[in-house]
Amino acid sequence: MSKQYDVVVIGSGPAGYHAAIRCGQLGFKTACIEKWLNKEDKTVYGGTCLNVGCIPSKALLDTSHKYVEAQHDFSVHGIKVSKVGIDVPAMIDRKDKVVKQLTGGVAGLFRANKVDGISGSGKVIAADKVLVTAHDGSQEELTAKHIIIAAGSVPIDIPPAPVDQETIVDSTGALEFQEVPKRLGVIGAGVIGLELGSVWARLGAEVVVLEALDEFLPAVDKQIAKEAHKILSKQGLDIKLGARVTGSKLSKGAKKSVTVEYTDSEGEQKTTFDKLIVAVGRKPYTKDLLDPAVGVELDERGFIKVNDQCATNVPNVYACGDVVRGPMLAHKGMEEGIMVAERLADKKSQVNYDLVPSVIYTHPEIAWVGKNEEELKAEGVDYNVGVFPFVASGRALAANDSEGMVKLIADAATDRVLGCHIIGPSAADLLQQVAIAMEFSASAEDLGLTMFSHPTLSEAVHEAALAANGHAIHIGNRKRRAS
Ligand code: FAD
Ligand code: AMP
Question: Atom 19 of ligand 2 has which residue's CA nearest to it?
């Protein structure tokens, strides 16, 4: 007899565990299948995000930022430290402890919400059946009224630089270095490449980022991307644009290095690194997930095809998170997981795909939501722009952290906020204020009329909103209108 559930979720990353917990809260008998094993061969929940993604990368970014502060910035405040050093194994160990605490937390939340966590690999074998293969090879069939697929994504590998997880690593390997590489190569100047490149550059590695495209961060507002390029280059990242990696060769001998071949505007080039991180993007993970007879459709890039409510073409089968279209971001998957669970309970939940915030956790952080100038120009929308530099923020100066700016864009006719783009201290958290305002269709004037505590970094958001209508107090107003 197969075990019967109302809902079976495959995958316990942010999309899957949010779906499973919400299903449990709504009274559905729910199981969540997870195949991830940690370094100790124990099943752990939380997927890429908690195990090898958002959280461990931020743990290393936070450690390396503190190191830079202790080394270079404390003295500005008059704080004297005699000798600053970095114990890399201790840093990695702390990161592992944070991961362990959070993955254990998900297991606890499953218990609290009566979700059965099931260890093994799930495969959809019918619209109401999932086959679970445990790590010892034993199999069990689960019956489900509804199936939610949240199998996530894995790093893309490229033939010119095959990952061996020792010298040539992907993002997972880059979280495990036991010493600071002397010379580190990064292929790809995307979010992950810049974050992981920053970690090791801050700790003293000479970092070269090879990016095939000629433009830096093409998805980011041009003004912000230009500022980011300037600041990150000043921090020591050698960002080579228009540099397409075509091959690599590992050295022989005990201490390995890798020589990377790439082409740029001047022709064929070669350069040697102690370690190389391949960070060229991620792809949906659907290996052994779907019996073709079930008929769940994939798109041409391998994503499971879904509608705006995350329903697949097969009734009662849903998919959410990185395995479906849209930005590969944990919070996008979380909201989708919750939406699917709530729709199973006949609630009319929706995800607002127009307001998915994006963040690059460099220092300063880069964060944006809504439309940028280039997109609005392409759409022929008439807009006003307000820009406020952190160098004019009392709080940023007090903290000695005043690089960057807040840029707010509002519709010229209605004043409704259309986008916000920030590079600066705590940009991710500052951006959220504007995301909330946009969710409630606020105007730049609404933000301008809101009282902000003084002195805060948030005042930069307030001033940018005022600047959009030419009313900023702490900078000269150059109201800019474009169409
Ligand atoms: P995943 O987190 O990938 O989880 C899928 C789970 O399903 C996995 O645990 C997998 O083992 C399991 N699974 C797959 N197939 C099966 C099967 N057949 N049976 C059982 N289990 C299965 N996003 C952000 O928003 N902010 C960040 O700061 C951020 N930083 C990142 C840093 C790095 C280095 C990386 C790699 C990613 C980062 N991301 C970040 C992206 C984020 O991690 C993903 O968008 C997010 O984890 C996707 O969630 P998911 O639930 O769709 O899939
Ligand atoms: P993202 O998809 O944001 O993680 O970024 C990955 C980046 O890797 C993109 O900007 C790609 O242009 C870049 N990329 C992909 N293949 C190569 C390659 N062979 N050489 C250099 N850069 C690459």
Answer: 245
